[in-house]
Amino acid sequence: MNFQIGPWLFVPQKCILCSDSTGDIELEPILFKLLDYFVNNQDRIISRQELVEHVWQQTFVDDNAINRAMSELRKKLSHPENAAPLIKTHYRKGYSITVEVVAIPMADDTSSNNDDISNEKNSEHLHTTDNLSANVIQQSNRFKYKHYRFMFFALISLVLIIVGYHILTYFQTTSTIKTNKNNHVKQANVSSELSNDPIKKSSESHTIQGVTWNSGQELRPIVSSDNLLFAYNNRAEPNINSFVKRKGDLKEVQLIYKDFDVTSISWQHGAHKVLAEVTNYKDECFIGLFDLTDFVDNPPVTKLKTCEKELYGGAHLASNGKKLYLIELDQVKQGGQVVVFDVKTKKSTLLIPSGDTQFGVTKLKLSPDNKKILYQRHQRDQPLSVHIMDLITRDNKKLYQIPHAGAPLVFDWFPDSQHIAIQIIQDLTIFNLSGDKVSSYPINIKNWVVGLAVEDTSNILLAMATGQNLEIVNIAALFNKQNTVEVTSLVKSDSMNYYATTHLDNEKSRYFISSRTGNLQIWRKQAQQVKQISAFPQQNPKKIGSLVLSPDREHLLYLRGKHLEIFNVKTNAIKKVEMPIHGPIGSYQWQADQQKIYYDMEHDGMRQIWSTNLITNAQHQLTQNGGRMLLKNQQHQLYYINDNHLHHLSGQTKHKITIPIAHCWCSVSLTAEALYSLDSNNLYKMTLDSSEVSSMTIPFRTSGIKMESNHSAIAAKYNNAPSQIKRITWQKSLLNDE
């Protein structure tokens, strides 16, 4: 097996590096072992101690020996076609290879069984002879057939031409039949959902190369209009930083404002200015415009608009700098809505409403010509969809809907404002707004894509969710004098399939939701056993809300889809709560005697508190003028939030809330003594008796929190492995297939 490493072909059997422009380079034994180890561990940072143990295979190696070997290997890998280093040093952490390593089968491997090939490491990057590009074929076979390659490739070329002619003829015929059959489908009518139109699949080959090398998870690539600069975010827990890289010389500067986190959002079209969220998550949050015109360290920033403690969604500044399009939280429905902010008058106008409660718009991008907005909508019990709004006519149409729920979706405009790239799983789909063409390009990647930026018609940047997982943990020693916490793992996972909808039983049984078996199910951890206890159908899977354990610890109350259900943890029986539904349900709780359940529900455009008697099915409205986020303390006393106050359900007492309240009730919790709210990485505590406020930073990202006492909580912890921004390059324009 040979390996393509950027501009080099690494041939382990001969211990050489090969390149058409520089010739062959022999590697000394220690350099060969080093490179071979990097190739087989390409997706992570390798520590110096690991190199000592696995490359030098000694208990002690002089640091100078490692430094000399690494320096020499970098010299060998330097190449005129690749200005960036192929091996990066991570301060006090180790080293990593900075490009995608592509495994290439040798000539005598092609006759082996496909099953054997699929078991090779990195098999997802293997290319058979049928789909290898000409230059890769030439590199992988020239060593064995060095004296005969002219005759060999002449014969192969003749065969490929004949086969290609027949394949092309077949697809042209098929395309003609499909075109005649679907002639009534027109791209101009975007609302007909182009995802149902015939999509032309392309097998055009591509290359993948890393373009960022910082330690941490690289996210949200964005490219300037002239394609000279690109920015990206780096998450190295617990901080987020933003960097801008100049493509010409690969110089990089960081966007800095005091000790705040800076998250780049978008480029202002036609300018070298980056729109970013700047926040310390406590006292200040604003949307700022960083000026990279001179490309200097510490670029100047202009404050455009204040925001909440954390920006809810995307934002984009028009070319003239007068209008800011952004996603804000609908305070009534708690969902994302698009507004237009006038930079001069400081006034906002609603452009796109949020829709379903706790759902709505979650991403947006302004077209380069400033005439359209592309945005993503999240609706209850429906897969994600992409919509487009004409800012002149205000015509709003659906462009695309993913075929199934659960997969992330990212998109971007091409520079011509007529083509759109949408990436889902391993397919890049190109939409032409002015014609009836939709093309799809499979990409050889193994992770979900969480960020996309179009550079030009043959290059895109992708950010992938590499190595991210959720782990249910117990956080103890909260609010101590040292401002530190003790974290104990409760349920481990190797993927993003555990959620912080957990509850503690006195018998030490913990219930949570996981999708590890295909769709959302209820799970229980008891002692050391983790077991699925529900059996919801695989067809038409529905979202499951937080689990709330009954006072007798025998039943779970949860929202599945639009309906409340009760699950018996002893018999696994499911009972649907019979009740008329006026609108979407938010939070819910048990009555102490379990004869009633309480919930907040949207009614007449307002959140209100309701109850249902589980014996008579009678429904009763408890509040007239609002109410949301039902909370229960350890004494089973019920409270709700309304008008910035915490109200007892009886109406006898209320407390003015003096801490930030998280948007999701899964991040708000109550004990007999205090109210808690997790806002980003900050956990706030408000003592009910004195209204005293304190806060502390949780040193990692979490998904919700459940207070078990005043000093202990359960949460789902995000664990992230380092990842790179990747550049995908095609030999020809992605728009040529039209």
Describe the structure.
The structure is a single chain. By secondary structure, the chain is mostly beta strands. It is built from 6 helices and 56 strands. Helix 1 (29-39) crosses helix 2 (48-56) and helix 1 packs across helix 3. The longest helix has 33 residues, at 149-181.
Mean pLDDT: 80
- Distance separating the two termini: 37 Å
Helix content: 10-25%
Adjacency order of strands in the biggest sheet: 4-3-2-1-7
Binned strand content: 35-45%
Find the count of extended strands (DSSP E, 2+ residues).
Answer: 56
Q: Biggest sheet: strands, sense, closure?
A: 5 strands, antiparallel
Query: Which structural class matches the secondary elements?
Result: mainly beta
Total helices: the number is 6
Low-confidence stretches: 108-198, 496-507
Give the CA-based shape.
Answer: globular
Work out the radius of gyration. 29 Å
Short descriptors:
738 residues, mainly beta, five-stranded antiparallel beta sheet, single chain
How would you briefly describe this protein structure?
The protein is mainly β and 738 residues long.
Strand and helix layout:
Elements: E1 2-5, E2 8-11, E3 16-19, E4 23-26, H1 29-39, H2 48-56, H3 63-77, E5 87-90, E6 94-97, E7 101-104, H4 114-118, H5 134-141, H6 149-181, E8 200-201, E9 206-210, E10 217-223, E11 229-236, E12 239-246, E13 252-255, E14 261-267, E15 273-279, E16 285-291, E17 301-306, E18 315-317, E19 323-329, E20 336-342, E21 348-352, E22 360-366, E23 372-378, E24 385-390, E25 396-401, E26 410-413, E27 419-424, E28 427-432, E29 438-442, E30 449-456, E31 459-464, E32 469-476, E33 486-491, E34 498-504, E35 509-514, E36 521-526, E37 529-532, E38 548-549, E39 555-560, E40 563-568, E41 574-576, E42 585-590, E43 596-603, E44 606-613, E45 619-621, E46 628-632, E47 638-642, E48 645-648, E49 654-656, E50 668-670, E51 674-679, E52 682-687, E53 693-697, E54 702-709, E55 712-719, E56 725-730
Parallel strand pairs: 8-29
Antiparallel strand pairs: 1-2, 1-7, 2-3, 3-4, 5-6, 9-56, 10-11, 11-12, 12-13, 14-15, 15-16, 16-17, 18-19, 19-20, 20-21, 22-23, 23-24, 24-25, 26-27, 27-28, 28-29, 30-31, 31-56, 32-33, 32-55, 34-35, 35-36, 36-37, 38-39, 39-40, 40-41, 42-43, 43-44, 44-45, 46-47, 47-48, 48-49, 50-51, 51-52, 52-53, ...
Helix pairs in contact: 1-2, 1-3
